[in-house]
Design brief:
60% helix, two-stranded parallel sheet, 4 strands, transmembrane, mainly alpha, two-stranded parallel ribbon, 321 residues
């Protein structure tokens, strides 16, 4: 059973909170003097804090769109694609390009030279934490534009049209509707773009960074465009990512993406079932478990993207006493 009602409620709630945040930030900014000095500094500090909150909300939308990537957001294919495309676009991500990027990542998870996420996080910790998310977003827009070179193939035309339609609709809101309602881009979209890489990395770094490389017999990569293509399931004893035990409210907000390695082993499951599956299988699978995102980042800062088994042995759930 898919939690369709919960997913719809969460999607609508996140959108409502985002627009309410835009409205509140704009009206609070109007209470500051237009001049510089301390008042100007406080004004932009406030706008920055709202931007952090907004990216946290957009991350929740992006994760719901990730459910749609795996076709487990709604049972209806139409609503799955529509909501997935719109939620992804609000998070500034082209949905079908992201599906290609993400499902290919599943098929080659943490395999050097094959996993498309290499470009995102296969760097020194500080570089990955600050620039990595921007690199990943850029890679997905490159995939979007590559469809322009394959206009003779219907599948690629459809993917391109869907992504451009969703992005065009959302950017018409960001750049047209909101400014017309008195909410300029300087208080809404621009701060989001500025803080997006750092805030998104706060979560994303704990997906796969600091995990031993997965050995593969493959020497070339074949991109995966949809769930019925390729292999999206990690082998039982292979570790490609982390499980971050965090607060229940954040688990709900971010749709249990903190159970990232569980998702890689069971990608056909809705996010609702990941905590239960983790509890049932943690003594059998070698999950790498850490408590809290801050503690995870403090641990990751001393590791390489591809680290050694000795470096993470203490975090394995199947060897815990």
């Amino acid at each position: 059973m898919l939690p369709q009602a919960e997913n719809l409620f969460k999607a609508v709630l996140l959108l409502a909170l985002l627009f309410a945040s835009f409205w509140l930030a704009t009206h609070l900014a109007a209470s500051f003097d237009d001049g510089g000095g301390v008042a100007g500094l406080l004004k932009w500090l406030m706008i920055g804090l709202f931007a952090v909150l907004n990216v946290i909300l957009l991350t929740g939308m992006g994760i719901l769109a990730h459910e749609a990537v795996h076709r487990v957001l709604f049972r209806s294919a139409f609503w799955n694609e529509l909501w997935g495309g719109l939620l992804s676009a609000f998070a500034l991500i082209p949905f079908n390009a992201n599906r290609q990027f993400h499902l290919t990542h599943h098929s080659y998870a943490h395999q050097p030279g094959l996993d498309p996420e290499n470009a995102q996080h296969h760097h020194a910790f500080l570089y990955a934490a600050t620039i990595g998310s921007a690199l990943a977003l850029n890679a997905q827009y490159i995939l979007l534009l590559e469809n322009l070179r394959r206009l003779g193939e219907r599948r690629h035309v459809v993917r391109l049209v869907k992504d451009l339609a969703c992005l065009g609709f959302v950017f018409s809101i960001y750049l047209g509707v909101l400014p017309a309602l008195g909410m300029p881009v300087w208080y809404t979209l621009v701060p989001i773009v500025v803080v997006f890489p750092l805030v998104f990395a706060f979560r994303a770094m704990s997906d796969h960074y600091g995990v031993p490389a997965v050995v593969s017999g493959s020497s070339t990569r074949c991109d995966v465009y949809d769930v019925e293509e390729g292999s999206a399931v990690g082998e039982g004893r292979t570790v490609s990512g982390w499980v971050v035990l965090t607060a229940p409210w954040l688990e709900w907000l971010w749709s249990h993406v903190n159970y990232h390695e569980v998702h890689h082993k069971y990608p056909w499951l809705s996010h609702r079932y990941l905590p239960g599956v983790f509890a049932a299988t943690r003594s059998d699978h070698p999950y790498l478990v850490v408590r809290g995102y801050w503690r995870s980042l403090l641990n990751l800062r001393r590791l390489n993207y591809y680290t050694t088994h000795d470096d993470v042995r203490a975090f394995r759930s199947d060897t815990a006493s």
